[in-house]
Amino acid sequence: MSDLTTVELLWLEKRIENRIRFGKPASEKIVDHHRRILSFLPGSIFAFVRWTSNDFGTILSRIDILRAVAPGQRYSTVPWVSPGGESLLRLAGWPKVERVLQLIDAVESLAIDPADVAPDYWHHAHNRLSVNEKPRAYTRARHQAWLHRRRMAL
Question: Which Pfam family name is an example for this entry (predicted)?
Answer without folding.
Answer: DUF2840
